[in-house]
Specification:
The protein is an alpha/beta fold. It has a single domain, classed as 3-Layer(aba) Sandwich (Rossmann fold), CATH 3.40.50. Helix content is 42%, strand content 16%. It is built from 7 helices and 8 strands; from the N terminus they run βαβββαβαβαβαααβ. An 8-stranded mixed sheet has the order 3-4-2-1-5-6-7-8, sandwiched between helices. The chain is globular and about 55 Å long. The structure holds nicotinamide-adenine-dinucleotide. The site of nicotinamide-adenine-dinucleotide has 27 residues, from helix 1 and helix 5. Nicotinamide-adenine-dinucleotide binds next to helix 1 and helix 5.
């Protein structure tokens, strides 16, 4: 019997599952037999469509309250209110704070922080209405615990995400909805590759030099893969994590230890 057999046919709603860490999370839950709804900015279809068996996709912009409301109503109409909600969508910008653009700061907060606020608010409300004793798993970052040069908006947005996670955890514990954040370290995705290019330019380094520096900062001697994060998300969604809530779990190869 699979340790995670209880996930079979559970409804999992992943926001930001079209690429990187989110795509690995989607595949991981599909392999466990869950019914997965994947909502991402990159999808064009405004209506929820089943593209394969037990797999649905829909367009969602977490920065746009109206699209969040529309998607949540569609989940209700299709009896797809989730047992497990995983919020992954996020963006980053890079510049030193004194040289940065206010628009960039606002955009990062609109997606990373306000997006978590809006999606959690509307989805957890429906979970409560249906008395679902579920899980909420939010992808924060080790940047929610440490500062990084050139990433003030991102660092501030992820610190706020951990604050939202802990507050929501406290408020919905009575409903047996468990809320945790995952804090990845350096994970090889499109976002990370772009950060290496732009961060390298800010410091007169090539992307290869930044990669070498990244590896040197990870105690276990390698950067992470999206699957490293998806494995911990699966654990947090499983019965093995039934006594955990309000935590911000590092998946950093030892780079962050607090
Ligand atoms: N890659 C890393 O090293 C790393 C480290 C720590 C935390 N994270 C976090 O992990 C999450 C996933 O990042 P990734 O590295 O896989 O990046 P990615 O760019 O590969 O994936 C991000 C996904 O979010 C979606 N998205 C972006 N804006 C959106 C919006 N407004 N509405 C809906 N979807 C939107 C994108 O379309 C994409 O599918 C982010 O929250 C990121 O901050 C990444």
């Amino acid at each position: 019997m699979s340790l995670f057999e209880e996930l079979n046919k559970k409804i999992v709603f992943v926001v930001g599952g079209a690429s990187g860490i989110g795509a690995a999370i989607v595949e991981t839950f599909r392999n466990e037999g869950a019914v997965v709804v994947n909502a991402d900015y990159l999808y064009e279809n405004r209506q929820l469509v089943a593209s394969q068996e037990n797999y649905w996709q829909v367009h969602l912009d977490v920065a746009n309250e109206a699209t969040v409301e529309q998607v949540v109503s569609q989940l209700v109409e299709h009896s797809l209110v989730p047992d497990i909600f995983v919020e992954v969508a996020g963006i980053s910008t890079m510049d030193f704070l004194t040289e940065s653009q206010t628009n960039d700061f606002d955009r990062v907060f609109a997606v990373n922080t306000r997006g978590v606020y809006l999606t959690s608010k509307l989805i957890v409300r429906e979970m409560q209405k249906q008395h679902k004793k579920g899980r909420v798993i939010i992808i924060a970052s080790q940047a929610g615990k440490n500062p990084y040069r050139g990433m003030s908006a991102y660092v501030a947005s992820k610190h706020a995400v951990i604050g939202l996670t802990k507050t929501l955890a406290l408020e919905v514990a009575k409903d047996q909805i468990l809320v945790n954040a995952v804090c990845p370290g350096i994970i090889e995705t499109k976002m990370k590759h772009t950060e290496r290019e732009i961060g390298g330019q800010l410091r007169n380094m090539t992307a290869e030099e930044v990669l070498a520096e990244d590896i040197s900062q990870v105690p276990i001697g390698r950067t992470g893969q999206p699957q490293d994060v998806a494995n911990v998300v699966l654990f947090l969604a499983s019965p093995l994590a039934s006594y955990m809530t309000g935590q911000a779990i590092n998946v950093t190869g030892g780079m962050t230890m607090h």
